[in-house]
Amino acid sequence: MEVIKNFPDSELVANLRTGKRMDETIKAIYRNHFESLGWYVQNNSGTRQDAEDVFQEVVVSFIDLVKKDKFRGESSVKTFLYSLNRHVWLNELKRRGRALAREEKYEKGQERVEIDTSYKIADREEKEKVMRLVEELGETCRKILLLFYYENLSMKEILEQTEYENEQVVRNKKYKCLKQLEQLINANPALKETLKTLLNG
Amino acid sequence: MDKNFTNNEELLVRLLDGELGAAEKQSVEQQLATDKKLQGQYDSLLLAKESLRQYGLTQKVAGIHQQMMDEMQVPVRKINPVKRLVRLSTAIAAGVILLIGGFWLYNNSQTVSGDKVFASNYHTYEIATVRDNAAETDLEKAYRAKNFREVIRLSEATEDKSIQSSFLAGVAALEIKENNKAIKNLTGVLQINKTFGQTLYKDDAEYYLALSHLRAADYIQALDLLQNIKNEPAHKYYGQVTYKLISQVKRLKNK
Q1: What pTM does this model have?
Q2: What residues in A contact B166, CB-CB < 8 Å?
Q3: Which residues of B touch A43 (CB under 8 A)?
Q4: What angle do CA A191, A196, A201 make, to 5 degrees?
Q5: How far apart are CA B38 and CA B33, in angstroms?
Q6: Subunit contact B55:A196, Cβ cutoff 8 A
């Protein structure tokens, strides 16, 4: 199979928005941007592992913003990823309590890369809490809900992937699972705030 | 359980799932606009859906991430014991040959050494004079005062390095013979320029990076950079990279 090295920005964004050729598109982002973005982290007190973790988070946030129409192409994908990467890494450094006294700015005349302050990105710890919450659902519930709400499969398609008798049984199960998830969220006000941030971007 | 409450919940889930007809949808939305409690219930459902989207997306990227990290790293091949023995013997033989060859070369080519070539081509980088000294950064002031260790310290203390900061740290490191730091910073300058399609300090960084590699005895890299400069007549250091210099580095590489 041919390895796709790059997509024009417009095609890359369209693919992420619609979910078309998703795997290939994400791989192209890695092939084209990991090296330079990873260098930034490694040259600013980070390790290779930090660079990998930050990049993974950047890719997730970028896709999320694209899907919510928050990335409108005012800057190139490369510039936008760079600013996300910088934002995520500086936040991580601050979280680690290693922020140093002065943050030197780019020299005169150079384009200042700033993330638009209207984009709100939950930090890594908060996102991990969201992941753990969904894990609490148990495998069956998680599977049904993800197939429906993330993969956008119909009840009929979900029925084919599970061992339930008919669509109505799947529908009832999905309803109960969703209520269970809702209760877990309502029991955790801090997490609720994180999800609000993620939802409203 | 309150039957109306349950019915409302079911309606909200159907709204969330996009399963209501136009009239039903309009009716529920009107209720939401006036009933805060109902709106609160719907908001909770939206958050539940969001948590699933986040989870699904994170899992998706995590799967590809591992695959890509494996692809991007040089694979470590396992060598069987026989091959290892052959390799060891070859390495020892090569070592002996290199030792003899090295001794011969040392006796026959004392005129060229990396340090000598470096010294005859190196000059301290000078910052352009600015009209307003007050506008100078601490880093520039330290460099101008030849306080090279301070330049490196200031640059390293900066979390978000600029191209200028990396460049000055690079040439400062070269001044105090910290080759690895010089290479790291100057490579960074070229990397950022490449990322943004810019040319800030590009020519300077290429020349001083070539000299850093030269002093670090990495002649292949040094030669590559010098030849690139020589292939570009508009390059700031085109005139300084002489054929003699390239020839000397070639000899060092072939030593």
Answers
A1: 0.60
A2: 43
A3: 161, 166, 184-185, 188
A4: 130
A5: 9
A6: no
Torsion of CA A188, A193, A194, A198, to 10 degrees: 130
Sign of CA dihedral A33, A34, A40, A41: positive
ipTM of this complex: 0.86
Which tens digit of pLDDT belongs to each residue from A75-112?
Answer: 899 999 999 999 999 888 888 875 444 444 433 333 44
Which residues are CB-contacts of B221 (< 8 A; sequence separation ≥ 6)?
Answer: B210, B213
Nearest chain B residue to A109 by CA distance is: B200
Residue at token pair 């969201």: A130
Q: Which residues of B183-196 are buried (b: 16+ CB within 10 A; e: fewer)?
A: bbbbbbbbbbbebb
Nearest to A150 among B56, B65, B184 (CB): B56
DSSP E strand stretches across A70-165: none
Taking the C-alpha atoms of residue B50 and residue B63, their distance in angstroms, rounded to an integer, is 20
Across the interface, do B51 and A134 touch by the CB < 8 Å criterion? Answer: yes
Across the interface, whether the CB atoms of A26 and B158 are under 8 A apart is answered no
Phi-psi region of B119 (alpha: psi -120 to 50; beta: other; left: phi over 0): alpha
CB contacts, 8 Å: A23 with chain B? 64
B58–A178 CB contact, under 8 Å: no
